């Protein structure tokens, strides 16, 4: 028998089939990578937004707690007239429950109720004043009331005769970028030489409006409602302020916006702005009643 020199037919793919398979494979891999990257970007954005919202909640929690104490005085410390003589708390009678600036404070660590405003305009500043007691302030281990940073407050002798030792606190809130990023700071007359300290991160701006009850009358509850909300420069009488509206313009800690994302946002004044650094910006609002506002 003659040997058969033909090679048995061998199965395989042609060059065209290989190229088509590679192209299809590349499309599949590209789709998977695009979906993975998109999911990662969306997840990062949501994480940053959640952190931004949490920072805003922390800031508003502290502001609301202080606003509810604004103007508070200890009733048992107001002494009656007669008997041993007249004793009045002139210190409590004349102080302003809240005070504010359309810019920052000139100095945030001056004496109780004496803060003044720096020149110009910018992020607003807010001062909250009240008598600190065991019921209204966090105490040290020795039972001494503290300010918003945990600093001990020095007591003052007021009234007389007889005199009474009382604690007064001026918690002052303002935005500062001293650490390299914008943060909400707090300081008081009890602050150390280093001044205020940050209490909430990534607060780009704070704006405050004050609700005035211009015709406030103790005997007429209807007059205790605010008739207008104005910024600090337009407040006519600080003792007539019965509510505070605060806006915090927050930003994400990192740039997370892509070229396809919307770059605009609404600021505290309602104006449309464009993100300058691919961060997400969002304005948060809260209105707080001064529950301890009393008429003198």
Give a quick set of tags describing it.
single chain; 296 residues; alpha+beta; six-stranded antiparallel sheet; four-stranded antiparallel sheet; 2 helices; 27% strand
Beta-strand content estimate: 25-35%
Q: How many H/I helical runs?
A: 2
Can you tell me the overall shape? elongated
Largest sheet: 6 strands, antiparallel
Low-confidence stretches: 77-88
The domain tally reads: 1
Task: Tell me how many strands there are.
Answer: 12
Could you provide a short overview of the structure?
The chain has 296 residues and is of the alpha+beta class. Helix content is 20%, strand content 27%.
Any chance you could write out the topology, listing elements then pairs?
Elements: H1 15-69, H2 90-94, E1 98-101, E2 125-132, E3 156-159, E4 163-176, E5 183-187, E6 197-201, E7 203-212, E8 228-230, E9 241-251, E10 264-266, E11 272-274, E12 281-289
How would you characterize this protein structure?
- The chain is of the alpha+beta class.
- Strands 1, 2, 3, 4, 5 and 6 form a six-stranded antiparallel β-sheet that branches. A four-stranded antiparallel β-sheet has the order 8-7-9-12, covered by helices on one side. Strands 10-11 form a two-stranded antiparallel ribbon.
- The chain has one domain.
- The chain has helices spanning 15-69, 90-94, and strands at residues 98-101, 125-132, 156-159, 163-176, 183-187, 197-201, 203-212, 228-230, 241-251, 264-266, 272-274, 281-289.
- It is 20% helix and 27% strand.
């Amino acid at each position: 028998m003659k040997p058969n020199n033909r090679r048995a037919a061998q199965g395989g793919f042609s060059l065209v089939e290989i190229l088509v398979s590679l192209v299809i494979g590349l499309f599949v891999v590209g789709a998977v990578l695009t979906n993975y990257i998109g999911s990662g970007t969306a997840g990062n954005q949501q994480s940053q937004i959640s952190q931004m919202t949490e920072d805003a909640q922390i800031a508003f929690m502290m502001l609301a707690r202080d606003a509810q104490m604004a103007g508070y005085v200890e009733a048992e410390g107001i002494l009656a007239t007669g008997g041993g003589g007249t004793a009045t708390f002139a210190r409590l009678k004349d102080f302003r429950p809240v005070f504010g600036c359309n810019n920052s404070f000139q100095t945030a660590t001056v004496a109780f109720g004496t803060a003044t405003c720096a020149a110009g305009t910018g992020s607003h500043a807010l001062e909250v004043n009240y008598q600190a007691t065991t019921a209204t302030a966090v105490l040290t281990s020795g039972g001494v009331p503290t300010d918003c940073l945990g600093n001990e407050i020095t007591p003052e002798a007021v009234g007389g005769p007889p005199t009474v030792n009382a604690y007064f606190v001026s918690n002052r809130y303002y935005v500062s970028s001293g650490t390299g990023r914008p943060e909400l700071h707090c300081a008081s007359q009890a602050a150390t030489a280093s001044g205020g300290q940050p209490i909430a991160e990534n607060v780009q701006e704070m704006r405050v409006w004050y609700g005035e009850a211009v015709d406030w009358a103790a005997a007429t509850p209807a007059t205790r409602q605010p008739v207008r909300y104005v910024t600090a420069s337009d407040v006519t009488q600080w003792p007539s302020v019965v509510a505070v509206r605060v806006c915090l313009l927050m930003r994400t800690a990192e740039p997370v916006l892509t070229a396809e994302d919307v770059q605009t946002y609404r600021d505290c004044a309602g104006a449309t702005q464009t993100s300058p650094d691919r961060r997400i910006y969002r304005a948060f609002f809260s209105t707080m009643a001064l529950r301890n506002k009393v008429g003198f």
